[in-house]
Amino acid sequence: MKRELFQIYTKYKKQILPLTLILLSLFIAFRVILPQFSSISQTNAAIESKRQELETLSNSIKVLETASDDAVSEDLTISTDALPTSKDVTKIFGALSSAASTSNTELNEFSLKIGGVFGKEVSPADTSAIGVPQVSVVAKVSSSDTSNLIQFAKRLDTTLPLSEIKQIDAVGNLGTFEINFYYKPIDLNLVSKKDKVVPLTQADRNLLNQLAEWKQ
Question: Domain containing 96: what range?
Answer without folding.
Answer: 73-215
